[in-house]
Amino acid sequence: MSTVALVGTKFTTLHNGDESYGFRIYSDTGEKEYSNVLSESEATNDDASLFRVALQLCDDTGREMLHQCVQDGETLEINGHEYSSEELNHMI
Q1: 3-state DSSP assignment of residue 41
Q2: Which of 20, 40, 43, 48 allows an S-S link to 36, with CB 3.0 to 4.6 Å?
């Protein structure tokens, strides 16, 4: 079984300091997705809210990784906290 991580992220452009918000999804098997489409007011530290936002906004790769966790019982770590598939189903 692989572990998937979902992390709320603040992105900063190095050359001008512009900031954007979003999330990163990655697995220990090398799959990854980055999204910086959220405004500061949409960014959240709440794990359940971040999970729902990611399900809505991620591309096929990210969606597949998240659905694997829900359907196949893979571990999902959201902002450093581990969730079971049962807990994830309650978040949806």
Answers
A1: coil
A2: 20
